[in-house]
Amino acid sequence: MRMVSIASGSSGNCIYIGSDQTHILVDAGISNKRIMAGLNELGLAGGDMAGILITHEHSDHIRGLGVISRKYHLPIYGTQKTLAGIASCSSLGNFDRQLLKPVDPDVDFMVGDLKIHPFKIDHDAADPVAYRVEHQKKCVAVATDMGHFDEYIVENLKGLDAVLLESNHDVRMLETGPYPYPLKRRILGDHGHLSNENAGRLLNRILHDHLKKIFLGHLSKENNYPELAYETVRLEIDEGDCPYGASDFSISVASRDRMSDIVYL
Fold it and tell me: With contact defined as beta carbons under 8 Å apart, do 163 and 143 qualify?
């Protein structure tokens, strides 16, 4: 199994996960050209994909979906309300709506030899989910766009070999920055985004001996810096109530502009 972030940030998101036989994308929020360039670096082409998992219908997660759907006729998985939002999105242009495949939170389904487990997250979208992907005894997850976390989220993120977790903003930068007050309240609310501090606190709940890689993703361009996210999360782990230190794990920030390292599991 392998996992790589092709792009992750408030301006666009696309993650590759695959086994030797099955290749999927989680979200397609960047241009088809950038997606294909990323896949080419992995020795893959658009036609090699078995499907696209969509977390929710916001543009930074579906921007490239229309082009990639028309070119490669790939199944698109998402909750019923998410797919309804995609179907009504005029900016995606025309594509075959029969490609839209509804899924239900907490109901597993298979894409090739990958077992997919969607689970609910709280975000200001129609019916958003995060995804846990398993192959044989390996398991990874992509969990972003969460206003907060609870025991349900923690349980769905336990036992992972790799994770891409939202570390969207620094609270102080957001509070003192140029965003209008209603937008600040939205981001900080229970249906907004996970802060650097809360990303670290969530990691404290899911760290274990076999967690090989942690990507910090979906960083805000205006309210965060990669170095700040990295150091804040590390500090939360080091000062948290868990038996591990940040140096026990490989932690890196997924970039909005370039591919991450490839994680092999």
Answer: yes
